[in-house]
Design a protein that fits this description.
6-stranded antiparallel sheet; 5 helices; Alpha-Beta Plaits; alpha+beta
Length: 177
């Protein structure tokens, strides 16, 4: 189903608005397999403050950051789970993302060209070591910013997730037949 591409939306709506099958069966989750799959990816979450001294094309900046991450020699060999980036300021927001290796970035929204502050949020899942991923993202943001944009890191975490330990797990059927 893709709302963006208008594929399968009607069928999905028919399913979710029809009779729900949820709660009739407990699904056995193999957490070892799940954890192994997650551990294949380097994860990165970042919040970064940007200050443009001169009028800056924030939409182009966002596409540049994603492009630099996506085309980095080490990054281009890695399998992409997703690259997501959001830039927001009082004028609006722009979102750029890539969800498949080799896919062209998708851009939504428009901030335009302005001087001043913006908040950059980066969320990445890629098949590589977390430290290497962190280096690529930092290099890409710095290169895109050049001398015209001041960067202040608010938070940046790159890691492999811990073994899943669900807080809440259904252990019995909750819907009576």
């Amino acid at each position: 189903m893709s709302a963006l591409k208008d594929q399968g939306v009607v069928e999905w709506l028919d399913i979710v608005s029809g009779i729900a099958n949820g709660g009739h069966k407990i699904i056995d989750v193999d957490y070892d397999t799940y954890a192994k799959g997650e551990a294949e990816l380097g994860w990165l979450n970042a919040s970064i403050s940007l200050v443009a001294r001169e009028a800056t094309g924030w939409d182009a900046f966002a596409r540049s950051v994603i492009g630099l991450i996506h085309c980095d020699p080490a990054g281009s060999r890695a399998e992409i789970g997703h690259l997501k980036l959001l830039i927001s300021n009082p004028s609006g927001q722009v979102v750029v993302n890539v969800t498949l290796t080799g896919e062209m970035p998708d851009t939504r929204g428009n901030i335009g060209t302005l001087a001043g502050t913006a908040l950059l949020i980066v969320n990445v899942r890629v098949g590589m070591e977390p430290q290497e991923l962190k280096s690529i993202v930092e290099r890409s943001i710095t290169a895109a910013a050049g001398r015209g944009i001041e960067i202040s890191e608010l938070s940046l975490n790159s890691f492999r997730p811990a073994y899943p330990r669900p807080t809440y797990r259904m252990d019995r059927v909750v819907v009576q037949p």
